[in-house]
Design goal:
Rossmann fold, seven-stranded mixed sheet, about 30% helix
Length: about 280
């Protein structure tokens, strides 16, 4: 499956970059990378609509000279693209997320090797980094975990390394689904089961903990399902949303028997923890 990369240029402020990312996410763009003066965004070729992008940019731009360029990212060429600018990430001095061509840091306790392709989840983005930090402070030993919207599989892999007994990983993007399977094998993990689909797969299933790094709209829609799928005293960790969205998520969570515990934020992105 091919993807389209667009580069929105002349976006000089962090606030405007956040607005552009949020608006493009609403029209099914899946992955983003911020540049000094712009934003890179990626969408599957079959979902791409130049008119939709032009309309969104026009709404945002006003008197600003925001424009965009596009190019096709062919499946076989993706590795060369991300290898040119992908750097390893170390979270809390405990967890390293690196590419296969990076050497291992022997001083890091949890070493995860990720070949991201087009999938979301390399820990470069604030939301993934915050989820990793939250997981590092959770007791996962012997627990049954769900990673919803697993992307590269990085959170599921970390859960396994933290002692989880069994992990279910789900994504509705075919590229992410296949990428998770590849990365799980690359890290020699055997207790993660990956499924292609959405929250409809959760019927009659229950978990000790659920992690969901998706986006605001999907989280609001699926919080009732997550609550039903959590065991009593089960923990829900969510991210993929802005700090300003937290009140709406808290309100929906509380309506579904989920009690807010804490949140953390980085660069206006947020992650939150709830208990059932």
């Amino acid at each position: 499956m091919n993807y389209i990369e667009i580069y929105c240029r002349n976006i000089l402020s962090e606030q405007l970059r956040e607005i552009v990312i949020a608006r493009l996410a609403e029209i099914d763009f899946e992955s983003f990378a911020e540049a000094e003066n712009g934003v890179y965004a990626y969408i599957s070729e079959k979902e791409f609509s130049e008119k939709n992008i032009s309309d969104e940019i026009e709404k945002i731009a006003g008197d600003l000279k925001i424009g965009f360029t596009k190019k096709i990212i062919i499946d076989k060429n993706w590795n060369a693209l991300w290898e040119s600018n992908y750097e390893p990430v170390i979270i809390a001095g405990k967890c390293s997320i690196r590419a296969p061509f990076h050497s291992q840091d022997k001083n890091i306790k949890y070493d995860i090797v990720i070949e991201p392709k087009m999938s979301f989840g390399t820990a470069h983005h604030e939301t993934t980094a915050m989820m990793i930090e939250l997981l590092l402070n959770e007791d996962l030993k012997g627990k049954n975990i769900l990673d919803m919207g697993c992307g590269t599989g990085v959170l599921a892999i970390l859960c396994s390394k933290l002692g989880a007994e069994e992990i279910t990983a789900i994504d509705n993007n075919e590229w992410a689904y296949k990428n998770s399977i590849e990365n799980i094998k690359r890290n020699n993990i055997t207790n993660i089961h990956v499924f292609f689909g959405d929250s409809s797969l959760l019927q009659n299933k229950s978990f000790d903990k659920i992690v969901a790094n998706i986006n605001r709209n999907v989280l609001l829609q699926d919080l009732p399902v997550y609550s039903k799928s959590l065991k009593n005293k089960g923990i829900l960790l969510i991210s993929g949303f802005y700090k300003k969205d937290l009140p709406a998520l808290k309100a929906t969570a509380e309506k579904n028997n989920l009690r807010f515990i804490k949140y953390t934020s980085k660069n206006n992105w947020a992650a939150a923890c709830f208990i059932r």
